[in-house]
Structure formats: C-alpha cells, structure tokens
Write a structure and sequence with these properties.
By secondary structure, the protein is an alpha/beta fold. The chain has a single domain, classed as Nucleotidyltransferase, domain 5, CATH 3.30.420.10. It has eight helices and five strands. Strand 4, helix 4 and strand 5 form a beta-alpha-beta unit.
C-alpha cells in the first residue's frame, strides 16, 4: 500500500481570499515504511506575504521572487501523488489550498476519498488532549528539537514519524516490502525481491482418512461436520 505524507506552507489561512501556496513537501510510504522518495518545491506565490505569516514559516516575498510558479510544478506534484492516499495534519486545510492552486492552473481538484487526516486520527486516539504536531512529537517521543519555525520539508518528516506511531509504530526493519520503491529508478537485479514458487501442502488419502478417524474419536459433534458447514454427501 502506497501513501504520501504531505505538508504545505502558505501566505495565509484562506485560499478563497487570495492566499497562495509557497511550499509543498511530501514523503512516500510503502506499507507504512518511508521509501526515501520525496517531493519538495518552494514556490513564488505572485503576491505579498503578510508579516504574521512570515513569522510562522520565515518566508518573505523577496525570498520567493523568481522561484517556480505553482503551474510550473503542478504536473510533477500530481505525478508524485499518483493515485495514493494523501496523509496530512489538518488535511482539509492542505487539500483546500492545493485544490485552489490546481483549479487556477486548469487541473482537477484532489479526490477527498484519498484524504487521511492525521489530526482526526490523533483526536480519536487522544480525546481532550492537545494534538498539534509539536504536542504529538512530545507525546510519542519524536525528536522535534530542530523545529524552530514551520517548514514543510521538516514538518512532513516529523509528521511521517508521528503518523507511523499513530498507526501502531511500524518498524522499517520488519517489513521486507520496504525495499520495493514505487517511484524513482527501477530496482537492480541485486535489489529485486526473490521470486518464490508456492508449494501447497496436499494431504494424501491415507492422511485424510487418519484425520477423519481422529476427529470421530476425539471430538463429539464437530462443528464443521454439522449443517450448514458439512460437505455435501457423495452422490455415489
């Protein structure tokens, strides 16, 4: 199962009032394990950035002038997202901004069925407790000491760790499928998983008869021999 953990930074809180995306970062997971696949773009919003927003993420309009426009990175972002589930913290916020940007450059909105909101998961797991990304990092022992301001690339790395903890603390070393990259260069012959031939165990007639005799002797009214589970009678 492929998922993408995503975060955005913006010029404000409301795309309907003209606020724009200025940074997008995403990390690829496969079977709840980071594959190393990442997407990160800093974007010229084609507008000013209010001081209160700069205090949150550190970006000014001057810093972003000349960076790619969202329309320039839209196809690459869509290709990275693919058809996978998209995990974000307070996901409706990120989806709302991305939808506004995609519509502005003539692309369709993201399917809400793909949205996985880690904030909603955290609220159900820890009702009544603070569930910001920082609060979850502290609660789940995820080191966020380097997070002095909001930064999409750093935040998405922290969110991926938090999300994996929320989903049960999956360990990368325990999942052989983690070696399969769904994006990026093809695996080499050495990296490719070994093909294994199924070897079904088929009991002999003598073994089946011995098992039936054992069940008849040791078990009274075995459930799987009673209707509706009993096999049909042999017409012969």
């Amino acid at each position: 199962m492929r998922q993408v953990v995503l975060d955005t930074e913006t010029t404000g809180l409301d795309p309907a009032s003209g606020d724009r995306v200025i940074e997008v970062a995403a990390i690829e997971l496969f079977n709840f394990v980071p594959t190393g696949g990442t997407f990160h773009k800093v974007i010229d919003p084609e507008r000013d950035i209010p001081e209160e927003a700069t205090r949150v993420h550190g970006f000014t309009a001057e810093m972003l002038r000349g960076k790619p426009l969202f329309a320039d990175i839209a196809e690459e972002l869509l290709a990275f997202l693919g058809e996978s589930e998209i995990v974000a913290h307070n996901a409706p916020f990120d989806f709302g901004f991305l939808d506004a940007e995609f519509v502005r450059c003539g692309r369709p909105k993201l399917d809400r069925a793909r949205m996985v909101d880690s904030l909603d998961i955290a609220k159900r797991r820890y009702p009544g407790l603070p569930n910001s990304l920082d609060a979850l990092c502290r609660r789940l022992a995820v080191d966020n000491s380097m997070r002095t301001s909001h930064n999409a690339l750093l935040d998405v790395k922290l969110l991926a760790e938090v999300f994996l903890q929320l989903m049960g603390g999956k360990q990368p070393g325990l999942d052989l499928a983690a070696s399969v990259r769904r994006s990026g260069p093809a695996l080499t012959a050495e990296e490719a998983p070994i093909a294994r031939t199924p070897r079904p165990i088929i009991p002999s007639e003598a073994e089946l008869a011995a098992h039936a005799a054992f069940v008849a002797k040791k078990l009274k009214d075995a459930l799987w021999l009673q209707p509706p589970f009993a096999p049909p009678a042999d017409p012969a």
